[in-house]
Structure prediction request, 410 residues.
Amino acid sequence: MNQYLNNTFSSLKNRNYRIYYLGQIVSISGTFLQYLAQVWLVLKLSNSGTMLGLVLTFQFLPVLLLTSWGGLLADRYSKQKLLYITQTLSGILSLILGLLVLTGNVQLWMVFVFALCLGLINSIDNPARSTFLFEMVGSENIKNAISLWTILISSTRIIGPAVAGIIIATIGIGECFIINAASFIAVLIALSMIRESELHTVPPVAAARGQIKEGLKYVRSTPILFNTLIMMAIIGTITFEWPVSMPLFAKFILNGDAAVYSAITVALGIGMLIGGFANASSSNSSQRRMVYTALLFGIAVIISAFTSTLLWATIAFIFVGIFSMVFLNLSATILQMNTDSKMRGRVMALWSMAFLGSTAIGGPLIGWIGEEFGARWTLIVGGIAALIAGIWGYWKLGYSGDTILIKESV
Prediction:
């Protein structure tokens, strides 16, 4: 038992990571609280799946188009300082939208502007945050650090929506944005307490022409990186459209309200939490495991589409959460461990584009599918996409059992 706990939580022995982790528990809980509030605000103002998808386009299009530039900034400058800026701006945005909702002045176009600004910030924040994990723990503990990070995401995915469902039902939507704004204080305090002398920093990349193109060439010439990113792009574009598919499923299939949406979101988070612990305690980060997980993920999503009661939907989404988190963790770990340190910011930027930025394309598409063919098809199509990604991975990666690690001095 002690050995299991030591393996599962080994990265928390690192002081910098431990402090940052605690701050992010508060901040990301607020972020997921805001996500649910934003979704329900759009549905309240428009009652349209298409509008919901378009808001996501505004939020994630900058991530799709500009994250490569954000990754280059992460390779050139201090990740810690970049995070100070992005986290502060995100908190200010949440405060502004919250006040607009509370004063009754919010309009749909304002939510679009908020989403666009948040996307611009996240195009820098996401690659900086991903690579900062490596700087805190180094190459030996990066797998466990990523696993614990996914546990954090899973836990806050439970806490945030659960609290949001209660707040929306009893108080209102605007308070969710105010609470999220306040939650950024925790991560800013954590960043201020980090000891720079204990970070595993590498010399910054000097500014030069063609560095983004250089990163793309590096990925294209490294099959394990390229094919992992292709799988992530397929699943990220179509399958991971939970902000569109799940509220539509809750409202039109389960005939529920924000509380029902909160319940299935919490179920997804519970599954992701289980998947995160499974990854943290496992030493297996093979490509083959990632491929098989993608296939199981697709099957679980398709099964969830055919549930008709809250009980069965909750059970199904727990399994969806398990396989989704294992896949996310394995893909991120494989990329981090097989990327040269000078390219890590740009490679993880591409991962963010494939995972998050692709929502700019997939969000409206899934919203349109929901309106034209019904809410179930938003999940069915997502499940099929995951199966396609798994088949691609088996063709390209499945014959190799283990990840080939790049040995670094950092």
